[in-house]
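Deliverable D4.2, example record:
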Amino acid sequence: MLEISNHVFIPDNEIDISAIRAQGAGGQNVNKVSSAIHLRFDINASSLPELYKQRLLSLRDKRITKEGVIIIKAQTFRTQEKNRTDAFERLIEIIKQVTVINKVRRATKPTRGSKRRRMDNKARRSKTKALRGRVSE
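Output generated by the structure prediction step:
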């Protein structure tokens, strides 16, 4: 059972995990040990709330396929267990990303006082620069 929040859980049977061989340098050990983890999570077939599903499917993330499957490949660590934990944490991070509701941003106008202060500063600065010219005799 993977806990996303206090009320949202993902059962283990909805997450498909397979061990694969890691890419990259590592000598002879990398060729014989399957330490990387390939995690697949089908959004449509999951027990997540409908709002989470819609937001996940609308995300523009390269880890989410057109069919609505999240694919995570974890191969940072040398042990399978650490890579499994890393894959789970990354899945939780993706799902938590859609739970945050951003405030609607509304355009505002500067206040009369801020306009006045800006113009006063401009005038003061202009006067300072004007005094830097040559002094006439």
